[in-house]
Design brief:
The protein is mostly helical and 85 residues long. 47% of the residues lie in helices and 0% in strands.
């Protein structure tokens, strides 16, 4: 007997089990290290952008997409909301 615990979608732009691209991983690691997720924040998006050599908008998009990818890769189908409201 087999019991499926997790199912992953293969996507060449997301090469690992977390669903993060290399840039997303780097952005999240930098954000965490610099205190972006602390309350109060230890770093702003502008700080992260300067550290990574990208625009504020790029940091914002990478963080949001990375968080969404982590949620998608860690929540089971039963835990996901069916209504986007």
């Amino acid at each position: 007997d087999y019991h499926l615990e997790r199912l992953y979608r293969t996507d060449p732009t997301r090469p690992n089990e977390t669903g993060l691209t290399a840039r997303q991983r780097e952005t999240l690691q930098t954000a965490f290290r610099e205190g972006y997720f602390e309350v109060p924040r230890g770093a702003t998006q502008a700080d992260l952008a300067a550290e990574l050599g990208v625009s504020d908008a790029a940091v914002s998009q990478r963080v949001r997409r990375a968080v969404a990818a982590l949620i998608e890769s860690t929540l089971s189908a039963e835990e996901r909301p069916t209504d986007p409201a």
